[in-house]
Amino acid sequence: MFGEPKHVSTGILRNSFERRAVLIGGLQAGLGVLLAVRMGYIGVVQNAKYTTASESNRVNLTLIPPRRGLILDRNNIPLAANRSDYRVDLIPERVVDVDKTIDVLGDLLQLGPDRRQDLRDKMDKAHGFQPVEVASGLNWDQIAAVSVRLPDMPGVIAQRGFSRWYETGPSVGHLIGYVGPASAADYEKEHIPLLITPGFKIGKDGLEKYFESILRGEPGARRAEVTASGKIVRDLEMREDVPGKTLKLTVNGQLQDYASRRIGLESAAVVVIDCLSGDILAMTSMPCFDPNTFSDGIGRIEWKMLNEDDHIPLLNKAVRGLYPPGSTMKPMATLALQQHGVDPAERVNCPGGYRLGNRFFRCDAVHGLVDMRTAIERSCNTYFWTMAHRVGYDAIAPVARLLGLGQEFKLPGTAQRYGTIPDPAWKMRRYKQEWTVADSLNASIGQGYVSVSPLQLAVMVSRIASGKNLNPSLVFGLQNPPGPALPFTAEQLSVAHDGMFRVVNGAGTATASRLQVGDIKMAGKTGTAQVRRLVSRGHVGDWKTRDHSLFICYAPTDAPRYAMSVVVEHGTFGARAAAPIARDVMTFLFDPAKALDTLHALEKQWGGTPAERMQAKYRIFAAQYGTSAPKVGNDAAVAAAITKADSSEAAVDTNDINSEAERGEASPTAAQPSPQPAATPSASTVSPGPAPAPVSSPTTTP
Amino acid sequence: MARNLVPTAIAKEPWEVIVPLFVLNTFGSVVLYSAAGGHLRPWALLHEIHFVVFLLMAFAISRLSKDFFKLMAFPAYGAIVALLVLVELVGAVKGGSQRWLDVGFMQLQPSELMKPAIVLVLARFFDMMPPAMTRTWRILVPLGGIVGLPALLVMMQPDLGTGLAITVGAAVVIFMAGLPMWWFLGAGGAVLVAAPLAFFTLLHGYQRDRVLIFINPESDPLGKGYHITQSKIAIGSGGFWGKGFGNGSQSHLDYLPEAQTDFAFATMAEEWGLVGGIFVLAIFLWVFRWGMRVAQNAPDRFSSLLAAGMTFTIFFYMAINTMMVLGLAPVVGIPLPFISHGGSSMMTNMICIGTIMAVDRWSKRGSALGS
Q1: What CATH number is attached to the domain comprising A71?
Q2: Is A56 on the interface with B (CB under 8 A)?
Q3: Is residue A227 in a domain?
Q4: Domain co-membership, A232 together with A368
Q5: ∠ CA(A115), CA(A118), CA(A119), 5° rounding?
Q6: B interface mutation test: which of A1, A6, A31 has the most B CBs within 10 A?
Q7: Which DSSP helix (H) or strand (E) runs through A354?
Q8: Which pLDDT value is given to residue B203?
Q9: Most buried of A528, B85, B138, B339, CB within 10 angstroms?
């Protein structure tokens, strides 16, 4: 194949060169034409496309998150405000090396391993352009340190902005809710660029969520010419943001804070209502999360703390906690009895209990002869069992509802649970069983199937105290008008008032909680609600099995102005845990300095304010668990956790008592170790079916 | 008439190429002036100085005799191969590859010098070969050695672009020398088969990425396809007339990477549009036509091959660069002659121009002597 051709001369090569030179020349010319055509195609045919691309390179439209509307208390003190600060965010889409970026930022901003892990979790969950907050509330030195490194860290945004700030932190968490970055689900619902603008927060819970459209405002915008590395060359155009509208609440911010802090280490709810207008002055549930730390997303340690706390900080007990009201029902019951012709002066002998058929319902003391007022004062169950049996429970339930129990109120941003004021129809519907007399007896003293929220108790006492059909309100200027007049005479009301006065100021159950403010007197009623059928009395043993402690009150007694309910979960006697809190909160309304002295002394024992205690606890948790705490779910998971908290509480409220009771009934022998219920062994009248038998709850109300 | 006013030595210079080149280079300076935000520094002034200095060098080269070229061919080639080996041993690593030798007063890139040197040595080689040898397979052995050694050394640096330029420059000289046409067709076919194999086995990761990105730049617009995407945006947004001098946002706001070197053509096209692009292409084609004319008119085989090879070396620079910025070729670090900033490539190109001018002189003298 490679054999030599015959004649290869210089001439032949010269000819070949000539031909091939033409070929090469043609190649060059051809390529020139190709290049010109290609350039024409890009530059002329596709000009529009590339001009747009060039403009979108050059001009950067930045949305400026609007300043969120303030939330003020009734005295125009901000409960939720905006704090100007520096912040750092990450845009997941643009971050090249997540781990390295987080490490560098962590070093610059001194983030501990727990915070870095939280950041990594958030980066895992976030996608696309959904911004992830690294830190806010930074100082100038920190932001400067980050800014210098920006060119090496694509996807990092350091800017000045506004952060939501709740001055009293945990005290308003349940009342106001909190804000957070928009989730993917939020963005699905509302597909606007503002939601993925770094620094923008959306209302996640409570009033912040309900009034989102009012509080949000209009974003500002800045058009700027930027370099490839994001440096702004010059501003082209600027539009200021329009801040959201202010929301004014009926709440007294200082009172709210005081009540929250006064709850201390207990798991409790306090609701204060203005007896003149129905305005809610304070509505708190503690312990609570800190809405300030929630707004940058919930970290692992924080989540673990909240989930492992048996006080269930995620539950707003004021509106979603349901408890048997116990003896706090009694003033209401006197109104119902009087309506049905019971003379307040009529006396009933209390031999230490009440016999119904062959069963004995035990009162907690031998009260002797008691009239209606004394029955409230001494909290005598026998009196109410006797009278309820006489007039029938059907007479009591409507009055309970009329005074607000079992009712839902028109309060925005509160997901209320309205509990149960049972009646025969309800029982049939729910349990497919007939109503029994025993049910009536239990219900008349606020046990058995009855469950109410602290808010309802506060409304009830405000209506009893004022005699007006007050409706609670939360938003200033949007107060709910009172309902139709209550069908009680002044005389009937005064019997309840007298009884409650004597509870605190007479020989009653809460005399230790008398007000020490001049000659201002407080009237009240204690309640001790049984959590479950008890082997022993409900003030010892595990925290979870102790009785709930309740107290309702109002003051001043001569011209009622403030009505209050206090529910302390598992606080044992009403007089022991709930009444002192009520006393101090009431004192704050009349003599703040004195009340604060009391609080400061207590907080020294407790280890500081709720926010300080939470920080201390966080440090302990972080040191203990480091980065081993489990991941936090998304918004849906948080909501699910709250729902779970609800239902576990509901189970304690009603079913537990009754199912326990049922078991007790099912073994109709003296072998039952419990001295209560003092049912005779031959409880033949009670059907042994799955019916929750009421016999077990002869509540003791000190 | 003009001969009376201008000294003959000057009048005899090939002004038909020097003037267009000056215009092209000055246009390059204008582009660089704008790219620097309306400043002569750091690029525009130096670009013009480079041109003048290396043009003087080209004049000097053009004065050298054919015998001197022939004499120096192998020693120069040998010296540059030695430098390439030296680079491999002690060269500075910059940007991931080892290309530069620090010789005190400047950073020397021997692979650049190899581009004209390979053309020279092959022209000399074919000049020495008896014509009959050109169509025997035995000639492939020394050719393989002459081309393969420097090409491999450069690719090992690794510098794929320059290695390819050396190989292609050599291939064109060999082609022009008259080796059988079907050998080239066969080699072309072999490359088509071997290219995928080489792609997966020989190329470095970043080189492989470049090829993949070239095939689909939008697959990673903010990553490795960024260069091509931004270059196309610059050229495409320039349109027909361009955005106007000093108004190129892509280059001024740093979206266009390497706006003053590898992507200078895009910088130009953004401000001067298709009009500017055709102007640049036209000058290049004019210069190439001149080079090929010189080659065709050259008095002997050595001169012809030398001029054609040098022309093609410049052409290869220009072709690869413009195809790259227009998204027709992968991103390789080859600057655009006379437009891109950079002394090294200016020197190479001026060596080529000077050599072609020398050939031009030899043929004019030959005709003047009346052959």
Answers
A1: 3.90.1310.10
A2: no
A3: yes
A4: no
A5: 90
A6: A31
A7: strand A353-356
A8: 74
A9: A528
Q: Report the CATH number at residue A600.
A: 3.40.710.10
* pLDDT mean over B45-71: 93
Are A227 and A275 found together in one domain? Answer: no
Number of domains observed in the structure of chain A = 2
Gap from A47 CA to chain B (nearest CA, Å): 5
Beta strands A359-362 and A548-555 are unpaired
Give the strand pairing for A548-555 and A59-64.
unpaired
Are B330 and B214 contacting, i.e. CB atoms less than 8 angstroms apart? Answer: yes
Mean pLDDT, 10 residues at a time, over chain A (702 residues)? 59 88 93 94 92 87 88 93 88 83 88 86 79 85 86 83 89 90 83 84 90 91 81 81 92 94 92 94 91 81 82 87 91 92 91 87 88 92 91 89 92 87 89 88 88 94 94 90 90 93 89 87 90 50 81 93 93 84 94 93 90 87 80 69 52 32 30 35 35 38 40
- Of A563, A547, A51, nearest to B241 (Cα)? A51
Residue B221 pLDDT grade (very low, low, confident, very high; cuts 50, 70, 90): low
pLDDT at A13: 86
Question: Which tops the pLDDT comparison, B198 or A660?
Answer: B198
Which residue in chain A has the smallest CA separation from B238? A43
- Interface confidence (ipTM) of the complex: 0.90
Out of A625, A649, A679, a domain closes at A625
CB contacts under 8 A, B 229-248 vs A, are 230, 232-240
Q: How far is CA A150 from CA A107, A158, A281, in A?
A: 14, 8, 48
Backbone torsion region of residue B100, taken as left when φ is above 0, otherwise alpha when ψ lies between -120 and 50, otherwise beta: beta
User: CB–CB of A151/A229 below 8 Å?
Assistant: yes
CA–CA distance, A629 with A55 (Å, rounded to integer): 47
Residue B319: per-residue pLDDT: 93
Angle at A83 between CA A81 and CA A86, to 5 degrees: 155
DSSP string, B352-366: HHHHHHHHHHHHHHH
Number of A to B CB contacts under 8 A, please give it: 147
In whole angstroms, give the CA distance from residue B128 to residue B145: 16
Lookup result for tokens 């598992």: A570
Map out the domains of chain B as residue ranges.
70-198
Report the distance separating Cα B221 and Cα B140, nearest Å. 44
Q: Decide: A186 and A123 in contact? Cβ < 8 Å.
A: no
Q: Is residue A282 part of a domain?
A: yes
The token pair at A521 is 């007197």
Using an 8 Å CB-CB cutoff, list chain B residues near A24: 172, 175-176, 292, 308, 312
My answer on whether A294 and A277 are in the same domain is: yes
Residue by residue, DSSP assigns A292-311 as HHHTT---HHHHHHHHH-TT
Q: Which among A35, A44, A50 is the nearest to B233, CB-wise?
A: A50
Q: Which residue in the block uniquely carries the two structure tokens 């909190």?
A: A178
- Structural domain for A432, as ranges: 253-625
Residue A339 shares a structural domain with residue A303: yes
